[in-house]
């Protein structure tokens, strides 16, 4: 059974919306801050468990699926008729559209991965080093 234009567009839209929903839920489930536990020269932060990192990576995965399906849909031979890629890239409008869609997909991936990886690093590295002012250090040495 051949894939139709309508099926392909619904696939791209479905995975795009799913990515958006997971991204919004991940951002809303993120805790405001961890519980600080002071130590000598550092602070240990304990974060409550929450699904924000997993939801962020799920959002990225569905964005990837949506993007791949979108690019496949550009070159897919609908009704058994395909156009050579060289002919498509001779069109200025197609080249502009293709580059804008590549840029948009890359920007979306970066904006999803940046907070997700940052949140994961906050959870794995629980130390925050406190810089002691020089005057306080001099008083400690005396």
Automatic annotation (TrEMBL):
A Pfam family per the record: DUF1218
Keyword field contains Transmembrane: yes
Family the entry assigns: Belongs to the DESIGUAL family.
UniProt-listed PANTHER family: OS07G0462200 PROTEIN-RELATED
Superkingdom to which the source organism belongs: Eukaryota
Subcellular location(s) of the protein: Endomembrane system
Topology class, membrane: Multi-pass membrane protein
Classification via InterPro entries: DEAL/Modifying_wall_lignin1/2, DESIGUAL
A GO cellular-component term linked to this record: endomembrane system
Regions crossing the membrane: 54-76, 88-114
Predominant localisation class: membrane
KW Nucleus (keyword) present: no
Signal peptide (residue range): 1-26
Origin organism lineage: Eukaryota, Viridiplantae, Streptophyta, Embryophyta, Tracheophyta
Keywords, comma-separated and alphabetical: Membrane, Signal, Transmembrane, Transmembrane helix
Protein name according to UniProt: PGG domain-containing protein
